[in-house]
Predict the structure of RND transporter.
Amino acid sequence: MEIQIHAVVLAAALAVAAGLPLQGVAQEGGEYFVVQQAQGASTVSLGGTVIPYKEVTLSAQLPGRVKHLAGIEGDTFEKGTLLVALDDSELLAKRNAALAQLANADAQLRAAGVQYNRELWSPQSKQTMGGMGLPNLFDQMFTRPMEGMAGTRNQNVERRADLYASGVQITQAQNAILSAQSQIQAIDAKLRDAISLAPFDGVILKKFVEVGDTMQPGQPLLVYADVEYLQIMVDVPARLRPALYEQMMLQAELDVTGQVVPVRVAQIFPTADSQRHTVKVKFDLPQGVSAPGMYVKVRVPDLTAPVRNQPVIPSTAIRYNGSLPGVYVEGKGGRPELRLIRVGESLDNGYVSVLSGLSSGERILRNPSNGIASGWIRRAEER
């Protein structure tokens, strides 16, 4: 026992000589920690929601019945995978009809071209009745020349009119082809809208339909997102906006595990909410520490608040009496005394700040739950 006491005194003397706080020094079976003072800029914990880096809501673009659904919530897919397909039987029938119209218009165009060439090289206005009879011969020698001399007939004008009529038939056939092609393009666009492909590698977060459901344009089909990279969406008060800038590193506390992780300012929205006077800010979250929809508290610096000057203790020193946190402070005669405290925010390396109940320089048990310390505490409580 005498050797152990000398070792304790020697360790304390070396710590004091080195200018270090008296922490981690064994004292009668208990490990003490000297409460330290932490100084720094004040921070404000703001609640936010974990969101995917990319998220889309696929909606129906035309009426129809759902005939294919790739999977359920949680299923992952690669980019370009067919996710949802609507029944396209009616659209395919309309496309076949449009193809038939296109074929008819093409045939009309060829026929009009043949008629135009015939009129160009063999004008109808100069043709006569067939045969070598006297009526035909008389018509060629006397009737037509006399009509031209009298001004009642002009073969050149008739030829130009016939050529123009043939040209109009060609134009009409070309327009019919363009109309049929436009109908096919419109139907093809609707056929593309009848299916929903994965826009990127991701996972189905929520589905709103089942196979056989009848959909109308605008109805949501499913929510698809990239959950490999996550972000935190936080509404930051406008007074805290000047302290933030893109790529700035901050800390966030996960609501589920209480783990403190580093986050980075990814995007600061340019405008503020006129009603709530807040600015939306996105923070990049490390991979694999959370999931979409979870609650996270981000510590944002508050430049308008006074500099923080609070005691800091290990989180293992806190012992809860019901819902009230407390620590065991070294009392008179070296006996531990339970003292209730008000806990602040979690810090790095397993430390927490104390808002009230402790002052700098006091000695507390580092871990009251270990075997020797807990037995010592029970004996002190029995006394």
The chain has three domains: 2-41+308-382, 44-50+227-301, 90-193. The first strand starts at residue 25 and ends at 27.
